[in-house]
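FW: tagging you since you asked about this chain on Friday. Here's the raw sequence from the shared folder, copied in full. Didn't touch anything.
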Amino acid sequence: MPLRGKPTSDRRIQRTERLLHAALGALMHEKPYDAIAVKEILGRADVGRSTFYSHFRDKDELLVSGIRALLESGRTRRHCDATKQAGGGAKPVAGAAWGG
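HL: got it, structure written out here
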């Protein structure tokens, strides 16, 4: 959830949050969620601690934000696919949450 639930079009914020989501996702492939420390997320994303905390309260909020981004991405894709099938020219939006 961008900056405490406030949607943003600022590409710098989107990039930072995308890096943090990807870092958490990659670490979750390597070890259990409970074993992941914020410090590891920061190192993987190459983001400073103060930057992390200006976007998220803790790693739990980062996780929830990533899940919401994934769900929204899927919802947007389904809508675009339906529009396309109905003859519209909408193109699917590429989701970047979790590095995928």
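FW: The CA atoms of residues 14 and 65 lie 12 Å apart.
HL: agreed, and The two ends are 17 Å apart (CA to CA).
FW: great, closing this out.
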